[in-house]
Each structure stands twice: as structure tokens, then as C-alpha cells.
């Protein structure tokens, strides 16, 4: 299990390399699309680089949808993010520039919510689960 | 036969900028200086280890830093070597013409309501096949002593799908040579990529000129980029016997490089006070099997057609740039064509060639030759006329007529 | 000086719906999908296991003497031979120096075994270390004959020229998925400028080989509706989830009008205009305003000297990806204005999938047939409309209509856009 700060740093350096940015420019609240200029192929590239860096396999769905489905809350309706969802997100992502969405967030806008924190959160959950699983099998022995 | 050019169209085509990278240097002037000094850019390959091949040398571009040329540096990660060279040459051609990104007189904005395209800048490049990044493939396949990946598709796919760069296709798509230029400089004009073997770049220049004459564009970045210093290309050339060599000729040497000309409608160039390197006076192409009894016929037809278009007499040329230096078959075909088209012995013609110094830059060669030929014409120091030949592996031929004042 | 006019006098096809022009058209009118599980190789480890294939037995019949040159060359040569015969061009003596060949090609021209067995050899030799010398040895051992010609897409038009003795210009264009249309546009310009009187023009492609399919899968561009092959390609439908790969070739005989009239040729349609443009935006994302698409359509209209309201039909690029279909719709509305409400739009890809480099060439033939028969093939699988795609896409049923002018759109990765404007031939 790696410590949170180290994880954050490694993710930032992966994203910085993929988007040709200086790691120091990248803030946890930066939208990969709106602040860091990511286009659709960059998401494929970042996933591939994360897989290589952390020696894991991960699907696009698992990696990118973490922000919204993390707590099992259904935050999305046909129209986009629900009022309840917005509240939760704003609490969790207090450094995100929410003023970009004066008219709410439609389904098509969802990728714009992705930040380096999306990736860090996913990896944390994944590694925690793996640690628990390891512990359990150790106890069984 | 076609009518002469001035009867067809009132729009004339000028060359107002040149960008060039070859084994001799990373800009036009250093390449030309090296040619004048008789230097060669050929040396043992550094881009990959060619020990396993009969030919182990190539003419490689040296000390090339793509960051110096890309405006959106993020895209370097998906640009292969020939695309990087292409972007560099195109950027230099625009700068050379005083129309570079920082000089800003070009209209690069897209107006949804605009209905004219007179301000448009297009891109037309000749290029060759890509290297497929075999090293990365091998890494993804991993341990495979029984070579299952060659016959077990399910095994192969499971390795490749999870192991190689997911952007592999975009890196290896040859049309990216033209589109990356357009993206870097914001060119919304006509855009295409030509892949007719070794005549691709000559065609790109000729076809781009035709677009300007037809009024479909005012400015075209046209030329070629190729980098075939990689194992699959060497293997194919060796198998085709190109590395066998012949007693009288230098060994077939692959070069890499990019040459881009900025072509501009002549009146527009004059109006803005742009420097005019040269005028394009004719372009033609034809095809004839290179193994046929008359292997030079295609080039002969193309040469006759360009002279006709330019309204020139064969005897009045100051230079003829030869396409074939290494391959005996192609050289003989070219000599036969020259003798017939110009009604004189090849030895009496003002022949020049550059491949023995910059290697055969394959799909880029037509434009690399043309860029150096223009420097040669300028060095003559008086108004001069020339034709530049291109000859493809299978006997495809193209000729471009140029003049300087 | 009056501009030389260009007409289509012959057409030849290799498609997942067969090699015959008439039955191909009948299938399109009947709304038949050619998509099914891939048979050419075992697709079981791919996320996408469906495609629109040219069946194995038809492939066998395609220019078997050109086996060394690969599938793309064989498709192209077969379609060219059919088109030449269809045009009766060579039934009387012709000046072969005035006949050119211009083909869109440029992908997929290597042999799986020679490349990947060599990769595996070189990679496996020392653990983790790639060895170039081993690779060289392995590849030289495995190279099948004519690898230089096979690797070069420049070979394809020369092969066709040599087979039929044509001595005019030859050229290969490669603008990814816009290339088929680009080839026809360039060929028309050759004829207008006098470089040739006749051009054998079109495109050929097959991405249905192990690495080809993998490369599109990795980009996430393909539909994964493996459970419902015939419903997988659903352009403009709300539930579209990517394109379906097809393969084949389309070759047309473009001819200077008076040349065609002199020999009494049948004329399918006139190539009245062409436009090329570039998004100059991103590598795969289309420009949000459809810049390239708008400009290519406008340039085609201008080239043909017609107004936007005079277009009755558009054969859309219509790939069945979320972004393309939305942006193409937006671009059509921008170019046609109010006339967009009346224009009929359909996507051939709903039935034969995306023929990549050959798509524009086959769809130009479809468009010519539309003008010739005055009938529009449907866009199939359009059941659940997308609010962002609100044009008349001729859903699921064919239609008889009076059509004088038709556009055919083709757009490629990298942002290259090409639009052809065809006109019903009226003398």
C-alpha cells in the first residue's frame, strides 16, 4: 500500500507527461478537458500510461466514472446531474470551477468533470480493496 | 496534347517559401552549403541497428528537435518521425515566406458565415508507409518462443490489445503528415496526402499548383516527407534487390527528409511584396511499366507535356534534375527518356542530381530535389529554367518545370 | 473557355453486399445489412467481433493472380476490371496515353505473419530486450514475395494501369476515411485541366486483418453490439455506439463528356463539383462547429455553381459514432440553411459498414445510382431518434424522389474532409 501523497504525485506526473504539461501546473481541481486541454484520445493515452505506471489493467468505465459513482449514489438522471448529485459533488470537489456550468451539467458535460483526483480516488479504492483481500486470505491461512 | 499554360489559366503559381531538412542539415541554407562543399550525409544508421542487412548506411537527419517547430507540443507524442519532419519543414516554409505563425498576416480564423475560401491555405504532402513500431509490438507480445502471435489470432489480440499504445493507428496513419501540418498552423484549405511511391512529392507540388491555378486555393504548403530508415523498409528493399548494387553506381541508400514549398498565387505574392523564389511553369505525370522494352516512355511523355505547358524549347534549359542515381534499371530508363525528349545525348545536357548526397528520400525525393534545384538556379545568377524529374519504382513518372528570374 | 465536363460512364464494386452493381443496389433499397460475426479470423479476444466482410468465396474470386500484392490490390483490380467492362471503354480502340488511374489506398498493406512472427522472434530472444539483428534475420526469412510493392500503396494504380495498358497519369491518395471521395475529386480535376480524358478512379481498403481490427478497437471507435450484428451500425440513432468495419473497393470511370458522347457511352451521372478542406482542429475529435465539413460542402457547391437549396439528397458520411453524426448534422444545417429541412439524407454505412479508405468511392457509386434510378436507399436501424440529429434520414424504408443534385460526404481521422457533388445527367 502506497501513501496518498506519493500516489497523487505519480498520477500528476503521468497526466503531465500525457498532456505535455509541467507537473507543477496541475492542480487537483483542474478539469483535464477545460483546464488542461485534454481531447478524447488523451483519455485513452492516460489510461494506458496509468496501466503501465501502476502495472494494472483498468477499463475506461472503471477509471473515469469514479467521481460520479463512488458512493453508490445515483447522481445522474436523463437530464444530467441531479440537484442532490450537484450538492455532493460540490462538497467533494470544492476547488473545481463550478461557475463553468451556470445552467447545470448535462450528460454530455460529464467528461469535463474529470480531474487528476478522479484517477487518484479510483486507484485508492482499488488498492484498498486489494489490501483487504490480501489480509482476508492471510487470515484464512 | 494540352494547350500551353497561359492559354488555360490566368493564375500563375510562385514559390515564396522553402523549408528543408535532410541528412545535410536542418534548414535550406545549411543543406545547400553542404551540397556546394560536396559533403555527403550518408553514414552508418543510428535510428536502428541495420547490422542484419546488406545495406547498413543511410542518410539520416541529425540533431532534430521537434519541440522547436510544434506549436501544440502535446501532439508530438502521436506524430511519427516523418510527420515531425513534415511539420518542421512546413513551419520553416511559412517563416521563410514571412507568413509564419508569429508574423500573423494569414487569416487563420474560421468564420461560419463566410462563403469565400479565397483566403484559404491548403496542405498537400507526399509520403510513404509507416514503420508500424515493431519494437513496441514485440514488447507487447512478450515471451513467445513458439511464435504463436503469428498464427493464433486470439493469442495475438489478447497481447496487443492490452499491451501497445492505444493510439498506434493514429501514429501510423500516413495522412497525418498533412493533417498535423494543418493542425499546427490552422490551415482549413484543401488538404490531401499522396502516396504514389517515389513520385509522391513531385505530384504533391504539381497537384497543389493545379489547385491554385484552378482558384481552389491561393496558398498551398506542398512537398514531401519520408523517413524509411527502419527495418521493414530495409527488408523490403533488400528483397527487391535494391541493395544488390551495380558496378558503376553508388549503392542504393535510403535517406530521410522533408521538403515543403509554399506555393502562392503570383499576383497575391507580388501584391504583398513577398519574395518570389521561382515560378512553377508546368507539371505532368504518366505511367509505363519499368520492365517494358521502352522503360523511359512515361518520363518522356511527362517531359514533353511539361515543356509544352511551359511553352519552352528543349534546348533552352539551364538544368535538369535527375531522379535516378542508384538503381541501374531506373537510371537507364531516365537516360533514355532524356535523350528522346531533348533530342540530345545525355552527356551534353545540364544534368544535376542530389541523391548521392542526401540519399533516396523516396516519397519525399521529388520535393527535396526541387528545393535544392531552386537553390542551384539562384546560384546561376541569371534568369534560368529547369525541369525536375521523378521516377517511381514501378515506372511512374512525374516532371515539374520551374523558372527563376 | 468553357470548362470541360466530367461524367461517370462505368462503375465496379467489391462490397460486403456483393460484386454486382444491380444486386448491390437492390440490397441497399431492400435495407439489407451485411454485418455479422467475423469469419476471416478468430475474433474471440476482441471487444468487437462483428464486421461487414466480403465473404471468403468472393475474396477467392478477386484477382487471384495478384495474391502476392495483398487484399487491397486485389479488391481494386477487380472493381477496376468490372468498371472498365461496364463502361465499354475498351470495346473500341482508345488512346491509352490519355487514360489515367487514381486510387485511394494506404493502410493495411502488410502481411500479419511476416511482421508479427518477426516481432516475436526479436522480442523473445533476450528477455525484455528487442534485438534488431534477430528481427532483420527473421523478417528477411519470412518476407513473402513482392513485399516492397505490397507495402507501398503507390503500387495499386500502377497494377491497374499495367493490366489494361493505360499510360496516362497514375496517383495514390490517402486521406484516411475521406480518401475515396478525394480520389474522385482529383480525377475530375485531371480531366478538366486536360491531364487526361478518362480516369479510372476510386478507392480500396480492407482493415479486416488482426492488427487492423485491433487498432480500431483500441481507439474505442467501433460498435461493440456483438449480440446484434445487423443492428450494430445505426447512424443518427440515439443508441449508436460506434462504427462497424466494412471492406471492399469502388472504382468509377470518369470521362470527359464529349469523349463519352462520341463513343456513345451510357452516362450514370455528372461529377459537377468537389470540395476538400481540413478541420485543422484535433486528430480524432471533429471540430465542434464542423468547420471542415462545412467548408468541403460549400466548396463542392461553389465548384458546381449551384445554390444550397438545389441539393435534394446527401449521402452522409454517417458513421454511427456519437460525434460524427451529431456534427455532420450540424454542418449540413449550417450549409443548407432552411433547405436542410427538405433535404433527404441517408447513410450507406448503416448496411455495409465503414469501408474506411474505400468508403467515399463506394458511396459515390451509391450516390450516382441514386441519381440514375431516382430512388433513395434508407438509413436502416434508425428507430430511436437522437434530438441532436433532426434531419430527414430516410429511416428504414426506401423512397422514390426527384433528385437533380446530390452531395456525398467523407471525413477522415486527422480532419481531412471531402464532398462530391453529383448531378443527374441531363445532356
Compact overview of the structure:
With 141 residues, chain A is mainly alpha-helical. Chain A contains six helices and two strands. The radius of gyration of chain A is 16 Å and the shape is globular.
Question: Could you list some keywords that capture this structure?
Answer:
heterotrimer; B: 405 residues; alpha/beta; 10-stranded mixed β-sheet; 19% strand; globular; C: 427 residues; two-stranded antiparallel ribbon
Give an account of the 3D structure.
- The complex is a heterotrimer of chains A (141), B (405) and C (427).
- Chain A is an all-alpha fold and 141 residues long.
- Chain A contains six helices and two strands, in the order H-H-H-H-E-E-H-H.
- Chain A has helices spanning 4-19, 40-54, 60-64, 66-69, 83-92, 116-140, and strands at residues 76-77, 80-81.
- Chain A has a two-stranded antiparallel ribbon with strand order 1-2.
- In chain A, a hairpin with a 2-residue loop joins strand 1 (76-77) and strand 2.
- By secondary structure, chain B is α/β, with parallel strands linked by helices.
- In chain B, helix 4 (134-141) crosses helix 5 (153-163), helix 8 (200-213) crosses helix 14 and helix 11 (297-310) packs across helix 12.
- Residues 104-119 of chain B have low confidence and may be disordered.
- Chain C is 35% helix and 18% strand.
- Chain C has helices spanning 21-30, 56-61, 71-87, 112-124, 132-142, 147-151, 155-164, 179-193, 210-218, 257-262, 291-303, 322-336, 349-352, 359-373, and strands at residues 6-14, 36-37, 50-51, 99-104, 170-173, 198-206, 247-256, 269-278, 313-315, 344-346, 375-376, 399-400, 405-411, 416-423.
- In chain C, a hairpin with a 4-residue loop joins strand 13 and strand 14 (416-423).
- Chain C starts with 5 loop residues before the first strand and ends with a strand.
- At the B-C interface, helix 4, helix 5, helix 6, helix 7 and strand 5 of B face helix 4, helix 5, helix 6, helix 7 and strand 5 of C.
Amino acid at each position: 500500500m502506497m501513501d496518498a501523497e506519493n500516489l497523487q504525485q505519480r498520477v500528476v506526473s503521468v497526466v503531465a507527461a500525457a498532456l505535455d504539461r509541467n507537473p507543477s501546473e496541475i492542480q487537483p481541481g483542474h478539469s483535464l478537458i477545460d483546464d488542461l486541454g485534454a481531447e478524447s484520445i488523451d483519455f485513452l493515452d492516460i489510461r494506458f500510461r496509468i496501466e503501465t505506471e501502476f502495472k494494472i489493467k483498468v477499463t475506461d468505465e472503471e477509471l473515469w466514472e469514479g467521481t460520479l459513482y463512488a458512493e453508490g449514489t445515483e447522481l445522474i438522471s436523463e437530464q444530467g446531474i441531479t440537484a442532490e448529485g450537484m450538492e455532493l459533488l460540490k462538497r467533494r470537489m470544492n476547488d473545481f470551477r463550478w461557475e463553468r456550468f451556470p445552467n447545470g451539467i448535462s450528460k454530455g458535460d460529464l467528461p469535463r468533470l474529470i480531474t487528476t483526483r478522479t484517477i487518484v480516488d479510483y486507484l485508492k479504492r482499488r488498492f484498498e480493496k486489494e489490501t483487504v483481500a490480501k489480509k482476508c486470505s492471510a487470515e484464512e491461512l | 496534347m494540352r494547350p500551353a499554360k497561359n492559354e488555360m489559366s490566368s493564375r500563375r503559381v510562385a514559390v515564396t517559401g522553402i523549408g528543408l531538412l535532410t541528412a545535410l542539415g536542418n534548414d535550406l541554407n545549411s543543406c545547400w552549403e553542404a551540397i556546394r562543399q560536396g559533403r555527403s550525409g550518408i553514414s552508418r544508421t543510428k535510428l536502428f541497428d541495420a547490422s542484419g542487412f546488406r545495406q547498413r548506411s543511410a542518410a539520416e537527419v541529425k540533431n532534430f528537435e521537434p519541440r522547436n517547430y510544434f506549436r501544440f507540443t502535446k501532439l508530438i507524442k502521436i506524430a511519427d518521425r516523418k510527420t515531425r519532419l513534415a511539420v518542421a519543414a512546413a513551419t520553416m516554409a511559412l517563416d521563410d515566406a514571412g507568413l509564419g505563425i508569429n508574423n500573423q498576416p494569414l487569416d487563420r480564423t474560421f468564420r461560419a458565415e463566410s462563403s469565400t475560401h479565397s483566403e484559404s491555405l491548403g496542405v498537400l504532402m507526399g509520403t510513404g508507409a509507416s514503420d508500424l513500431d515493431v519494437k513496441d509490438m514485440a514488447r507487447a507480445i512478450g515471451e513467445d518462443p513458439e511464435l504463436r502471435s503469428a498464427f493464433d489470432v486470439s493469442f495475438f489480440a489478447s497481447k496487443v490489445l492490452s499491451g501497445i499504445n492505444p493510439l498506434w493507428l493514429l501514429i501510423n496513419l500516413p495522412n497525418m503528415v498533412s493533417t498535423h501540418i494543418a493542425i499546427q498552423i490552422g490551415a482549413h484549405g484543401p488538404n490531401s496526402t499522396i502516396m504514389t511511391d517515389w513520385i509522391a512529392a513531385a505530384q504533391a507540388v504539381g497537384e497543389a499548383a493545379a489547385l491554385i491555378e484552378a482558384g481552389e486555393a491561393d496558398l498551398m504548403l506542398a512537398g514531401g516527407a519520408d523517413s524509411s530508415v527502419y527495418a521493414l523498409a530495409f527488408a523490403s528493399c533488400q528483397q527487391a534487390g535494391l541493395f544488390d548494387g551495380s558496378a558503376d553506381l553508388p549503392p542504393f541508400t535510403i535517406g530521410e527528409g522533408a521538403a515543403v514549398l509554399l506555393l502562392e498565387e503570383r499576383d497575391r505574392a507580388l501584391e504583398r511584396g513577398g519574395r518570389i523564389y521561382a515560378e512553377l511553369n508546368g507539371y505532368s505525370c504518366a505511367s509505363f511499366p519499368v520492365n517494358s522494352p521502352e522503360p523511359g516512355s512515361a518520363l518522356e511523355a511527362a517531359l514533353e507535356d511539361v515543356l509544352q505547358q511551359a511553352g519552352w524549347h528543349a534546348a533552352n534549359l539551364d538544368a535538369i534534375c535527375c531522379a535516378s542515381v542508384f538503381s541501374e534499371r531506373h537510371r537507364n530508363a531516365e537516360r533514355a527518356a532524356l535523350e528522346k525528349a531533348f533530342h540530345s545525348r545525355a552527356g551534353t545536357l545540364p544534368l544535376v542530381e542530389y541523391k548521392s548526397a542526401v540519399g533516396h528520400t523516396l516519397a519525399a525525393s521529388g520535393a527535396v530535389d526541387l528545393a535544392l534545384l531552386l537553390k542551384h538556379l539562384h546560384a546561376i545568377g541569371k534568369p534560368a529554367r529547369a525541369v525536375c524529374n521523378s521516377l517511381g519504382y514501378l515506372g511512374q513518372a512525374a516532371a515539374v518545370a520551374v523558372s527563376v528570374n | 473557355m468553357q470548362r470541360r465536363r466530367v461524367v461517370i460512364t462505368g462503375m465496379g464494386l467489391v462490397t460486403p453486399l456483393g460484386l454486382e452493381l444491380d444486386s448491390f443496389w437492390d440490397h441497399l433499397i431492400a435495407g439489407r445489412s451485411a454485418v455479422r460475426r467475423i469469419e476471416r479470423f478468430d475474433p474471440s479476444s476482441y471487444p468487437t467481433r462483428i464486421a461487414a466482410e466480403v465473404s471468403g468465396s468472393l475474396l477467392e474470386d478477386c484477382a487471384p493472380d495478384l495474391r502476392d500484392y495483398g487484399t487491397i490490390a486485389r479488391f481494386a483490380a477487380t472493381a477496376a476490371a468490372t468498371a472498365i467492362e461496364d463502361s465499354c471503354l475498351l470495346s473500341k480502340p482508345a488512346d491509352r496515353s490519355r487514360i489515367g488511374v487514381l486510387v485511394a489506398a494506404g493502410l493495411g498493406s502488410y502481411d500479419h505473419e511476416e511482421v508479427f512472427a518477426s516481432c516475436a522472434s526479436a522480442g523473445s530472444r533476450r528477455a525484455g530486450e528487442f534485438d534488431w539483428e534477430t528481427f532483420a534475420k527473421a523478417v528477411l526469412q519470412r518476407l513473402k514475395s513482392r513485399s516492397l510493392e505490397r507495402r507501398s500503396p503507390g503500387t495499386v494504380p500502377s497494377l491497374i494501369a499495367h493490366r489494361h495498358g493505360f499510360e496516362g497519369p497514375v496517383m495514390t491518395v490517402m486521406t484516411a476515411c475521406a480518401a475515396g471521395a478525394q480520389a474522385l475529386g482529383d480525377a475530375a480535376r485531371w480531366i478538366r485541366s486536360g491531364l487526361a480524358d478518362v480516369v479510372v478512379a476510386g478507392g480500396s481498403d480492407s482493415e479486416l486483418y488482426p492488427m487492423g481490427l485491433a487498432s480500431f478497437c483500441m481507439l474505442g471507435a467501433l460498435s461493440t453490439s456483438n449480440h446484434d450484428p445487423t443492428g450494430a451500425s445505426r447512424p443518427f440513432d440515439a443508441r449508436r455506439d460506434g462504427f462497424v468495419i466494412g471492406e471492399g473497393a469502388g472504382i468509377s470511370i470518369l470521362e470527359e463528356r464529349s469523349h463519352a458522347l462520341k463513343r456513345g457511352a451510357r452516362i450514370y451521372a455528372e461529377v459537377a463539383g468537389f470540395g476538400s478542406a481540413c478541420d485543422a482542429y484535433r486528430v480524432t475529435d471533429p471540430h465542434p462547429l464542423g468547420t471542415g465539413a462545412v467548408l468541403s460542402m460549400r466548396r463542392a457547391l461553389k465548384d458546381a455553381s449551384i445554390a444550397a437549396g438545389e441539393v435534394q439528397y446527401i449521402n452522409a458520411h454517417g458513421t454511427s459514432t456519437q460525434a460524427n453524426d451529431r456534427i455532420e448534422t450540424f454542418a449540413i444545417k449550417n450549409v443548407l440553411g432552411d433547405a436542410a429541412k427538405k433535404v433527404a439524407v441517408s447513410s450507406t454505412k448503416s448496411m455495409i459498414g465503414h469501408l474506411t479508405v474505400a468508403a467515399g468511392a463506394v458511396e459515390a457509386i451509391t450516390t450516382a445510382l441514386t441519381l440514375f434510378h431516382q430512388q433513395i436507399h434508407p438509413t436502416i436501424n434508425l428507430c430511436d431518434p437522437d434530438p441532436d440529429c433532426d434531419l430527414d434520414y430516410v429511416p428504414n424504408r426506401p423512397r422514390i424522389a426527384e433528385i437533380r443534385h446530390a452531395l456525398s460526404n467523407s471525413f477522415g481521422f486527422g480532419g481531412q474532409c471531402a464532398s462530391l457533388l453529383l448531378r443527374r445527367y441531363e445532356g
